[in-house]
Design goal:
Shape: globular
Order of helices and strands: HHHEEEEEEEEEEEEEEEEEEEEEE
Radius of gyration: 30 Å
Strand order of the largest sheet: 16-17-18-19-1-22-21-20
Distance between the termini: 37 Å
Number of domains: 2
Largest sheet: 8 strands, mixed
Bound molecules: calcium ion
């Protein structure tokens, strides 16, 4: 029985009982009132009491429900391949392109754009990004590579084959991760907000707030667009959020703890940060800053 039905029945019972209350002690408290007023007072009183009781019950139910977080699936992983990765590469962006990986590395004086052979980790092509810039995320859209910088609010555009710099663009705030859905550039800035930019004029088309249930998911870092979802590394966490690009809701978590064995890296900043996707062969690649390995992984249900 619903609460509404319960209280409707309660009100009806009280109304039926009212005529028999004439001789009741409680009723005698209102003896100074005319009979018609007594009856009206009783009806209004019964209604107010039932509304008050209903409100208390509703609040109580709401309080019981509020701490609950909507559960989302948690995925594990299987390593399909582990390949060498330049342990000096402070990975900030990773993209699959024509059988190779494009990689952006950060830190002032060490920033670069690279083309890397997957199986050997060999750097086939490299363009340095000079100081004062700290390179961040990259994405490939219609033959152009877009590369963010961390705090300079400027991005660089390159030809995807020659790495020739063909333009710049500007955005507000910090630049962390970059991806695209074929229409918009998708930009993270370390908060729980993701901006979708028009690649024609770099205006913000939409901003989504990323939440797990009702909790904001902050420090979204490297991004990848994978089969209609945004995958996002969480800074300093061994996990990737799978995000609905329409609503910002976290659809699932990929737990990658143990991917790199303990002791393989010692730097505190050598954290998971690099997701690339080979759409044709549905291969998912991950690595991290200063990691000696790059992994192809397959997701498993946990
Ligand atoms: Ca990526």
């Amino acid at each position: 029985m619903s609460l509404e039905t319960y209280f409707l029945i309660l009100v009806v019972i009280l109304l039926v009982m009212i005529p028999s209350l004439k001789s009741d002690m409680t009723w005698s408290l209102f003896s100074f009132l005319p009979k018609r007023v007594k009856r009206r007072t009783a009806i209004i009183g019964a209604l107010l009491l039932s509304i008050l009781a209903h409100a208390c019950q509703t609040t109580s139910v709401a309080n019981l429900k509020s701490p609950e977080k909507s559960p989302v699936p948690i995925y594990g992983y299987e390593v399909v391949h582990a390949w060498p990765h330049d342990p000096g590469a402070y990975t900030q962006g990773l993209v699959f392109h024509d059988g190779k990986l494009l990689e952006s590395t950060g830190q002032v004086g060490h920033s670069s754009l690279r083309r890397v052979e997957i199986e050997s980790g060999k750097v086939l092509q490299k363009l340095d990004v000079d100081a004062p810039y700290f390179a961040e995320g990259i994405t490939l859209l219609k033959g152009k590579i877009y590369q963010l910088t961390w705090q300079h609010q400027v991005g660089f555009i390159y030809d995807a084959w020659t790495f020739e710099k063909i333009g710049e663009f500007h955005y507000q705030g910090e630049g962390w991760g970059l991806a695209n859905d074929g229409q918009s550039l998708i930009l993270s800035d370390g908060s729980n907000h993701i901006r979708l930019l028009d690649p024609a004029n770099f205006q913000v088309r939409k901003t989504i707030a990323v939440v797990d249930g009702s909790a904001p998911v902050n420090e979204l870092n490297e991004l990848e667009y994978v089969q209609g979802e945004i995958y996002a590394n969480i800074w300093h966490a061994d996990r990737i959020a799978r995000i609905d690009p329409r609503t910002g809701a976290v659809l699932g978590w990929i737990e990658l703890t143990g991917l790199l064995a303990r002791g393989e890296v010692s730097d505190e900043e050598a954290v998971l940060n690099g997701i690339a996707y080979d759409e044709t062969n549905r291969r998912l690649f991950v690595t991290g800053k200063l990691w000696p390995k790059l992994f192809e992984i397959r997701l498993t249900s946990k």
